[in-house]
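Quick check before the chapter quiz. The format below is the same one you will see on the exam, so make sure you can read both the input and the output lines.
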Amino acid sequence: MIKLSEIFQFRLYENQMSKIKPDKRYSFSFVYNNTFNDNINELSKVIDFLHEDLVWDGIPTLDIVKKRLNFGSICMLWKYDNNVVGWSWLNNNNITTDWITGYKPLNSNEQYGGGAFLHRNSKPEPMAGYKFYRFGIENMFKSFDKSILYLYSDTWNRASSILCNKVGFKKYDFL
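Here is the expected output.
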């Protein structure tokens, strides 16, 4: 369970996002429950990247990814020049702390995101983390016709908090 004292909670309205010049090298694709089998290779690649970059017993397996998708969470694969380099997660129905169980239902104009990961050795340029956050969030808003996004960042994850601020998120307690 999440300790509220160990996280920063954020909210972003679509119209408050930072401006950014389009960059066609960055692209995204969504993985749903019914497209899991078509994306096993790319999902496995991201899981391998997680093992390369992190020492963490919470790295999901393909079975956990399938459970997340079965619950209704959606994986957004991050691609640079059409090569998968990371992912993030979203849910359009629930705030979820594990992507498998609901914590709090969302309104029809809201979505919840998180779990962003960019493989350290696949990072194509210094601004890649910001660009993936920014372009990815824009993609989430447009693809699902939402206007509000919630996420949280662990207090130890300074990079995530900085990226949230650069994109336009404001601190907001929603949990």
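If your answer matched, good. The chain has a mean pLDDT of 95.
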